[in-house]
Write a structure and sequence with these properties.
Length: 121
């Protein structure tokens, strides 16, 4: 696992980068990516943290003009308390988990509908 990948920086633990683990090979060969986030986010608090489930769609744009769609419900965490030797809580949100699916251009409508429906706890 390449913990130096840009996406690994956004995970609470770089080795938990599920997007890279599952789809790193597909992502490497893309011309560009488009990210769409459903603003209907479900959030709740527990034990010094706030957790939010964020529905998102990533369009993978291949050099040959084809597209694939990575749908996901990303669980993010914001800590309200300092961790380790820190004197202040980390002000950044971090990914802690994701439920992901990859579809092809033929299933674009289904991918969009999946994200439009939002995440369920």
């Amino acid at each position: 696992l390449a913990t130096g990948t840009p996406s690994a920086l956004y995970w609470e633990a770089a080795t938990d980068d599920q997007v890279y683990q599952l789809y790193g090979k597909e992502l490497t060969h893309q011309l560009s990516l488009d990210v769409y986030v459903n603003p209907e986010v479900i959030a709740e608090g527990a034990a010094g943290s706030i957790y939010a489930m964020v529905p998102a769609l990533v369009t993978l744009n291949a050099p040959d003009g084809t597209h694939s769609y990575l749908t996901g419900c990303y669980t993010t965490r914001l800590s309200n308390v300092p961790v380790g030797n820190a004197t202040e809580p980390d002000p950044n949100w971090h990914f802690t988990n994701a439920a992901l699916g990859l579809t092809t251009n033929a299933a674009a409508a289904a991918a969009i509908l999946t994200v439009a429906q939002g995440c369920t706890p």
